[in-house]
Amino acid sequence: MLPVSALSDAANKLRGLLLSQIDDIEEIKQLKIGHPKETFDDMDSDLNNLNLFFYNIRFDGYPADGLSDDPFYVRLYCLITAVGANNVSTAISAGENDLRLIGEVMRVLHEHPILSIDRGDNVEIAQLQIIPHLLDLDNLNHIWSTQGDTAYRLSVAYEMSLAPVAMAIAAEPSPLVATPQMLSWGAMNRLMNEDKAGVISLKPGVEYFEIDTDREDWVPHISYVEQILASPPELQNVFKIEGGLTRELDILVAGKENATLQLVWNVWRRKVDHSIVAWREGIPDQVPPQEKEISNAPGSAVPFFPNRIDPDDIDSRRIVKAKLPDDIALADTKAWQAVLYAVHEWEHEEPLGSGNRVVTGIISNPVLFYGIGVGG
What pLDDT, on a 0 to 100 scale, did the predictor assign at position 212? Predict the structure, then answer.
């Protein structure tokens, strides 16, 4: 037996949706997938029938960042034809039942425009959007001319997109941020020892930033402190970690003096089997929270500016420790990315004048770390 494909799964999901939502269509034999002629020859004329004829499949392309084990995508085109019963007892003609059937089809697909496609274990791999597709009379005549002497019946067409082929592996979006971008120009046939000619790094730099902490809803700001041997430290908002996945990281924080911040991680990783664990969110940092306080050393004569990020004046009194999440150091991790946020918990009255106190988490800018895992 042939395996279930994304195309057959989409067709059966569409049939199941119509079966469950149209009261007078209760059996699969009343709603078939196939050529209209074959359905008409085998249908029960005393029942209302629908036919789903998938008359065209159009290749939609391959993702620009896709790999050979990623799916490509197609658009499916379906002609839905109504064959209404001729109810003598109620004096409702077959033609009027056709209109009622098509009206129900259009209602159902307007109310349920999204179909979920899974690979059989309840793991969603794609969502298909159902869109009305306009067919003029010439195209309709061309389709029906392939059905022999079968007379035309009232029909509507829909596009279903995008279906993944193959469907064995769930399609995953790209990471939030990839490796630093590069811009190149000039002749690409560079001579030896001139690899860096004509290349500019677009790695985002950290600029001076000052927070208005007079506002109760002030937003914290953070940056990674790169400790470079024999030179002053530098601030980074995107940084590649090479080795030392369990070491502590120096994070410069800015906010209101004596405020305590929480550090939270989001993690994306590709495993050695090429499967992806996509963005586990809200992972608390492992270093105890009491070390995240923005405080001045007692008795210090050096000016203290807790609300500033200044690349030219990195204040060690505002450096706190953080540790990468444990997932990153697992043996099955091939590549990973981790986004770090600081969260300021703002307690306030909501709604104003109600007397009810609520706490809202205000998150900082993100800092991205990435690298190769143990299994890479």
Answer: 92
Are 39 and 154 part of one and the same domain?
yes
What pLDDT shows up at residue 180?
41
What dihedral do alpha carbons 294, 363, 311, 305 form, nearest 10°? -30
Q: State phi, psi for 264 to the nearest 5 degrees.
A: -130, 140
Q: Within 13 Å, how many C-alpha atoms sit on residue 153's CB side?
A: 29
**Domain span at 146:** 6-165
Q: To which H or E segment does residue 191 belong?
A: none
Predicted confidence (pLDDT) per residue in 151-204, tens digit: 888 999 999 988 877 655 544 544 444 334 444 444 445 455 554 545 555 567
Q: What is the pLDDT of residue 184?
A: 43
Residue 227 lies in a domain: yes
> Quick one: 210 and 114 in the same domain?
no
**According to the model, what pLDDT value does residue 187 have?**
46
Place of tokens 């009491």: 290
Specify whether 209 is located in the same domain as 159: no
Q: Which residues, at least 6 apart from 11, have a Cβ–Cβ distance to it below 8 Å?
A: 33, 52, 54, 76, 78
For residue 249, being part of any structural domain is answered with yes
Token pair for 354: 């109600």
Residues whose CB is less than 8 angstroms from the CB of residue 308 and which lie 6 or more positions away in sequence, other chains included:
208, 209, 210, 211, 254
Query: Treating both helix axes as pointing N-terminal to C-terminal, what angle do 6-21 and 94-111 enclose, rounded to 10 degrees?
Result: 110
Same structural domain for residues 153 and 207? no
Mean pLDDT of 307-322: 91
How much is the pTM? 0.52
The pLDDT of residue 179 is: 39
Q: Transcribe 350-374 into DSSP letters.
A: SSTTS--EEEEEEE---EEEEEE-T
